[in-house]
Fold this sequence. Notes:
Blueprint lengths: L5 H6 L10 H8 L6 E5 L17 H10 L4 E6 L4 H10 L4 E4 L4 H9 L1
Parallel strand pairs: 1-2, 2-3
Amino acid sequence: MHPNFSTLYKNKGLRELKFNSTRKAISQLKKDKPDYVVAEFFYGYGTNYAGINISNLDVFLFSLQKYAPDAKIIVMVDKHERQYVDKLNEILPLYAVLTNPVKPAQIEALLEE
């Protein structure tokens, strides 16, 4: 579901790295300190997150605090899960939360701040 903003990132002079697993993202995080992280939020309804984590991003964001604490975190979320992002934001401050569908102009404005 993640929109393709590759052209926008390239036009801004940003190097884009994509990961389909938290493990791979954290491994890269130890090597490179990102300025921005753009990620999709999925609330942990199932037992995978049962009471320990709020979402798919928790583990990565805790690692991000350790390895790249100045990175700006932009989270994209579906409207029906928007309420749960606030729980995550209380624990791990987010730079921005955008509700899907996210438009390139929204991302571009955040990258210019």
